[in-house]
Design goal:
Blueprint: E1 10-18, E2 26-33, E3 39-48, H1 51-58, E4 67-68, E5 72-80, E6 92-95, H2 105-108, E7 126-127, E8 134-135, E9 145-149, E10 153-155, H3 162-165, H4 171-182, E11 190-194, H5 198-210, E12 214-219, H6 222-230, E13 235-238, H7 244-250, E14 257-262, H8 267-275, E15 277-285, H9 299-305, E16 308-311, H10 319-331, E17 343-345, H11 350-359, E18 365-368
Parallel strand pairs: 4-8, 11-12, 11-14, 12-13, 14-15, 15-16, 17-18
Antiparallel strand pairs: 1-2, 1-4, 2-7, 3-5, 3-9, 3-18, 5-6, 6-10
Helix pairs in contact: 4-5
Keywords: Metal-binding, Oxidoreductase, Zinc
InterPro entries: ADH-like_C (IPR013149), ADH-like_N (IPR013154), ER (IPR020843), GroES-like_sf (IPR011032), MycoS_dep_FDH (IPR017816), NAD(P)-bd_dom_sf (IPR036291)
GO molecular function: metal ion binding; mycothiol-dependent formaldehyde dehydrogenase activity
Amino acid sequence: MTNAPRGTNMHEVRAVVVREKNAPATVETILVPDPGPGEALVDVLTCGVCHTDLHYKLGGIGNDYPYLLGHESTAVVSSVGPDVTDLKPGDRVILNWRAVCGQCRACAKGQPQYCFATHNATQKMTLADGTPLTAALGIGSFAEKTLVAAGQCTKIDDDVDPAAVGLLGCGIMAGIGATINTGEVKRGESVAVIGCGGVGIAAIAGAKLAGATTIIAVDLDPAKVELAKSLGATHGVVSRETDPVEAIRDLTGGFGADVVIDAVGRPETYKQAFYARDLAGRVVLVGVPTPEMTLDLPLLDVFGRGGSLKSSWYGDCLPSRDFPMLVEQFKLGRLPLDAFVTERIGLGDVEAAFEKMHSGTVLRSVVEI
């Protein structure tokens, strides 16, 4: 029932599980097997509380309950499978959900950041009674230990705050990557970001890192706009009070921004992004829409404005390339990853952290294990 090989040692650890749709996230004992071929067993150090985990809890991603939540993590490798040669016990790693296959058509074209066959651990972790768990994004790291594919481990230096750099495992990487990788922001360009949650503010930090000179933060909430300005935005627009399209044009000489990033993911905000960009500018969608949303744009406007309309999935990142580089930028003081850590909590505080998400008062709650 566990899908573990005969004779595999099972580790009893504490972990955060949600058993059914809308059920509370609770701390339970789970069983984690020793690693098999291509796998790594890791001791989790930190795990950020991401909106994706809340989507799992609410049934917004699937119905494969029970879910083992958590995915935005740093960890230390405990043991590896018999065929794993590029990891060893003691390695400090950031966990990622893009373990590239190296063989699919994207990888064959030299674009592994778009790998179409990313993989996870083969064995299942289970509840104490043997019920298989579905690991969030193939990771499941609200746990003292978790089992992942070896390719989901990206080695980093161990002289940095794990709570800060672990956020690169998902949301912060999505925002930074939307700017640097997908939007291809260049020195001296103008960037507007609509939506100043964790991903949006990470996009702003990425724009500053890339050398943008005009960085405009847009949000309904004045407090979020002010926070964005403290982390790299040069201008702020409270869209509850001001038309954001007109404001962005006014701040860019009447033309619109070179790159506009929609970190909300709604038809209304996407239209704002579309019309707030300069001719031949780029729009990047990184906010996640819901299935029922549709977009209505005049096709002549799409043609006539030129440029490009892009979507960014995980910031189009390649973990082996991007994580170490961004950790180094953090160490050099150019990327304030620690500013995204609003609070440090324990495993038993995850459900309360989900409630805080609704208030918009935190960028990231981070579980320290």
